[in-house]
Amino acid sequence: MLYLVSSAGGRMKIRISNLVFALALGVTSVAAGEQKASGQVNILFDGKEVSIGPSFPRASEYAAKFAAVEPSCDPYCVVPQQTANGITTIDEHGVLAFLMSAVGRRDGLLVDARMPLDRELGFIPGSVNLPHETVEKNNEFRGDVLKALGVRTFEGVFNFTDSQQLVVFDNGPTQNDAGILISHLLEAGYPAEQIKYYRGGMQVWSVLGLTVQE
Q1: Closest Cα to residue 145, out of 193, 184, 180?
Q2: Neighbouring-strand partners of residue 43
């Protein structure tokens, strides 16, 4: 388990998903299944078979949880459709296709930008947790996190040639954890064409009845 020091003040410990580092070490086993006409997706993720699709029985329960999360700004606000220049915004079909293709080929990660306590409410199966503070410029472990994403370093210079494709999401349109993480990645030099943004997040995902995991 690795803890990072937040630059927001004090020594706030943030747990990074072990899965990110397992992937960097080649330990995680990920394979794509087939996508059916119904939108059902089956993947083998971290050694376990995961099924994602519509009509999830507890979807309304999770939708209520995610709707109750306080917005990240006051007064109530909605994040824009495009989070940053050069970043493509995708919908649920795009997320499912990404899981089938990029994650299945092990050259992509579905990234949850929320803090661990927020992720405990539920998350999209096949995703990994990368809280936005872990890639903040002043975080002393930022280089380690980028390395886990396939970024190489030489004498303090980042090389993004082999960087992972990323789809980043958070709680939904009233939150901006994903936008903050994307801005930190871009500031570090991460190529915009390697990042996509799922704006709907957990709010829209659950309202549409798609599978949620804890």
Answers
A1: 184
A2: 32, 50
154-200: pLDDT as tens digits? 877 889 999 999 999 999 999 999 999 999 999 999 999 999 999 99
- Three-state SS annotation for the chain: CCEEECCCCCCCEEECCHHHHHHHCCCCCEEEEEECCCCCEEEEECCEEEEECCCCCCHHHHHHHHHCCCCCCCCCCCCCCCCCCCCEEECHHHHHHHHHHHHCCCCEEEEECCCHHHHCCCECCCEEECCHHHHCCCCCCHHHHHHHCCCEEECCEEECCCCCEEEEECCCCCCCHHHHHHHHHHHHCCCHHHEEEECCHHHHHHHCCCCCEC
- Of 173, 201, 185, 203, give the one whose Cα is nearest residue 80: 173
Contacts of 195 (CB under 8 A, 6+ apart): 87, 165, 166, 167, 168, 182, 185, 186
Only one residue has tokens 């030099």, namely 189
> Shortest CA distance to 50 belongs to which of 81, 19, 73?
19
Q: Which of 120, 125, 131 is nearest to 99 (CA)?
A: 125
**Which has the closest alpha carbon to 104: 175, 64, 60, 50?**
50
| 115 token code pair | 């803090």
Q: What average pLDDT does the chain have?
A: 82
Q: pTM, whole model, 2 decimals?
A: 0.83
Closest Cα partner for 52 from 16, 104, 108, 120?
104
